[in-house]
């Protein structure tokens, strides 16, 4: 029986969904933050629950062969990257293994799982950064939240972000310090600048800076605009967003354009997208192309098919599919996302798309009742997976193929098991690394009607 506060040797065998190491002591599962498979360590047991415990590394006996010095000196403090201390190819292997194990264990799915598609350069891949702003002794601090807290780790540079961010951060620091601009304090709810958000079009080089303020009046606005113009290459848009609520949500209701356009442009493949301050856009455009091209390949379109894109968001997959399908019908619960999807279809001159706002579990059965059917169905649900009503309607409409894009292998496994029980076979599965150095894994699965 394990004892709390006692020290044990352990070998880390696996990584959990938040990037924590997992090993066993006397057959009992222990989670070890910072441990990676192959590490032999000594841990002190911090807590014990019925089925598992948590241990803290107090001594490294023998490091894993996959352990590396992370490129970022803040990797252990900042909450952003959980497995940056693991060699990149080992990260890709462990992600494949996780998908494999979960599909087998939860879904009893027996299929081909390909090696994870990774990035050639797994750094500087994010197109959106959010910097909380604080102040210590008259010095502005901008950076990222510490693991599990709201303390800001001060930094000019993040290795997974576009390098343009350091120019934005430096300029904002300079503006705040030079003109003694106040920054927001979560406790007193006083002070002006709350967050700085940047968005970058990777294909176009266009940059948007969003300044989130607690109140409307932004002093010395013109000086700020001039400074950003001078220092930030590709600057196309400066936007102020006002959030005077006591909340962890970054954006408030009102948005004002201070300079340039209210949106920037980016491309994924040949498709053009408008990105505004608050619109959703995939954060890794390079891997989005890889993932959605795989989805398109799995859909095996000839140009004659009617396709459903369920949980379509701003229609990124829908537009990919529309280039090769007769018609694409997208369904999504957020109204502004559907407006973006329609606008994106429009600017790409794709007139074979139709979008519906509503809960998929309500809209899909209604559309089917009206006689609409998909020859191919693509789903890209949130972490909780597909609603059973959606799956039920899919199997009743009997499409030739179902392409399942998933950000959570556990719900993917559950839903594949449902579809396999009702006449579909999982032909192949492709994990894609959308977020290098984090524990996330995205997966696309191809199912065919038996
Ligand atoms: N492929 C999309 C992203 C999908 S993310 C894109 O590229 O934009 C999952 C989407 O499902 C989110 O946009 C979310 O708003 C939507 N969603 C969540 N619950 C839903 C429901 N019950 N019905 C329809 N859409 C839902």
What characteristics describe this protein?
OB fold (Dihydrolipoamide Acetyltransferase, E2P); binds S-adenosyl-L-homocysteine; 32% strand; methyltransferase; seven-stranded mixed beta sheet; rRNA (uridine-C5-)-methyltransferase activity; NA-bd_OB-fold; eight-stranded mixed beta sheet; 450 residues; 22 strands; single chain; Rossmann fold; 23S rRNA m(5)U-1939 methyltransferase; alpha/beta; S-adenosyl-L-methionine; 9 helices
List the helices and strands and how they pair.
Layout: E1 7-15, E2 21-25, E3 28-32, E4 40-48, E5 52-62, H1 88-107, E6 112-113, E7 128-136, E8 139-145, E9 152-154, H2 164-178, E10 193-200, E11 207-213, H3 221-231, E12 235-242, E13 254-260, E14 263-268, E15 271-276, H4 285-299, E16 306-310, H5 316-322, E17 327-332, H6 335-347, E18 353-357, H7 360-369, E19 376-379, H8 388-397, E20 401-406, H9 409-421, E21 424-432, E22 442-449
Parallel strand pairs: 3-5, 6-21, 11-12, 16-17, 16-19, 17-18, 19-20
Antiparallel strand pairs: 1-2, 1-4, 2-3, 4-5, 7-8, 7-10, 8-9, 10-11, 12-13, 14-15, 20-22, 21-22
Helix pairs in contact: 1-9, 2-3, 4-5, 7-8
S-adenosyl-L-homocysteine (SAH) binds at residues 280, 282, 311-314, 316-317, 331-334, 337, 359-361, 380-382.
Tell me what the structure shows.
The protein is of the alpha/beta class. It has three domains: about 55 residues, Nucleic acid-binding proteins (OB fold (Dihydrolipoamide Acetyltransferase, E2P), Beta Barrel), CATH 2.40.50.140; about 200 residues, Rossmann fold, CATH 3.40.50.150; about 150 residues, OB fold (Dihydrolipoamide Acetyltransferase, E2P) (Beta Barrel), CATH 2.40.50.1070. It contains nine helices and 22 strands. The chain has an eight-stranded mixed beta sheet, sandwiched between helices. Strands 9-8-7-10-11-12-13 form a seven-stranded mixed beta sheet. Strand 19, helix 8 and strand 20 form a beta-alpha-beta unit. It is globular, with a radius of gyration of 24 Å. Bound molecules: S-adenosyl-L-homocysteine (SAH). S-adenosyl-L-homocysteine (SAH) binds next to helix 5, strand 17 and helix 7. S-adenosyl-L-homocysteine binds next to helix 5, strand 17 and helix 7. It comes from Natronincola ferrireducens. InterPro entries: MeTrfase_TrmA_AS, MeTrfase_TrmA_CS, NA-bd_OB-fold, SAM-dependent_MTases_sf, TRAM_dom, U5_MeTrfase_fam. Belongs to the class I-like SAM-binding methyltransferase superfamily. RNA M5U methyltransferase family. This is 23S rRNA m(5)U-1939 methyltransferase.
């Amino acid at each position: 029986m394990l004892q709390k506060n006692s020290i044990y040797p352990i070998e880390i065998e696996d990584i959990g969904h938040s990037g924590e190491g997992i090993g066993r002591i006397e057959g009992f599962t222990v989670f070890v933050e910072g441990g990676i498979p192959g590490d032999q360590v000594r841990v002190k047991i911090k807590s014990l629950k019925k089925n598992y415990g948590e241990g803290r590394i107090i001594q490294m006996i023998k490091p894993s062969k996959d352990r590396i010095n992370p490129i970022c000196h803040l990797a252990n403090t900042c909450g952003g990257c959980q497995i940056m201390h693991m060699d990149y190819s080992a990260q890709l292997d462990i992600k494949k293994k996780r998908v494999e194990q979960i599909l087998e264990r939860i879904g009893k799915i027996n299929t081909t799982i390909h090696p994870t598609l990774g990035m050639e350069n797994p750094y500087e891949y994010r197109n959106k950064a959010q910097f909380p702003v604080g102040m210590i002794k008259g010095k502005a601090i901008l950076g990222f939240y510490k693991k599990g807290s709201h303390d800001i780790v001060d930094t000019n540079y993040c290795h997974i972000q576009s390098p343009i961010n350091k120019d934005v951060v430096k300029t904002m620091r300079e503006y705040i310090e030079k003109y003694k601009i106040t920054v927001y304090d979560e406790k007193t709810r006083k002070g002006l600048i709350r967050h700085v958000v940047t968005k970058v079009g990777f294909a176009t080089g266009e940059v948007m800076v969003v300044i989130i303020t607690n109140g409307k009046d932004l002093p010395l606005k013109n000086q700020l605009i001039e400074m950003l113009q001078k220092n930030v290459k590709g600057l196309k848009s400066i936007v102020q967003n006002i959030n005077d609520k006591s909340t962890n949500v970054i954006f408030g209701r009102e948005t004002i354009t201070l300079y340039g356009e209210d949106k920037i442009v980016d491309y994924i493949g040949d498709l053009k997208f408008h990105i505004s301050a608050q619109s959703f856009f995939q954060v890794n455009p390079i891997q989005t192309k890889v993932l959605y091209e795989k989805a398109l390949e799995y859909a095996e379109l000839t140009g004659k098919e009617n396709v459903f894109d369920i949980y379509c968001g701003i229609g990124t997959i829908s537009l990919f599919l529309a280039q090769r399908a007769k018609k694409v019908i997208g369904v999504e619960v957020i109204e502004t996302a559907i407006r973006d999807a329609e606008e994106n279809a429009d600017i790409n001159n794709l007139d074979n798309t139709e979008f519906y706002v509503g809960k998929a579990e309500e809209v899909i059965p209604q559309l089917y009742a009206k006689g609409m059917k998909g020859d191919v169905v693509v789903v890209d649900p949130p972490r909780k997976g597909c609603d059973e009503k959606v799956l039920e309607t899919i199997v009743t409409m009997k499409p030739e193929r179902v392409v399942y894009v998933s950000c959570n292998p556990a719900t993917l496994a559950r839903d594949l098991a449902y579809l396999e029980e009702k006449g579909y076979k999982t032909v192949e599965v492709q994990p894609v690394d959308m977020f290098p150095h984090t524990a996330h894994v995205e997966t696309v699965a191809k199912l065919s009607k038996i």
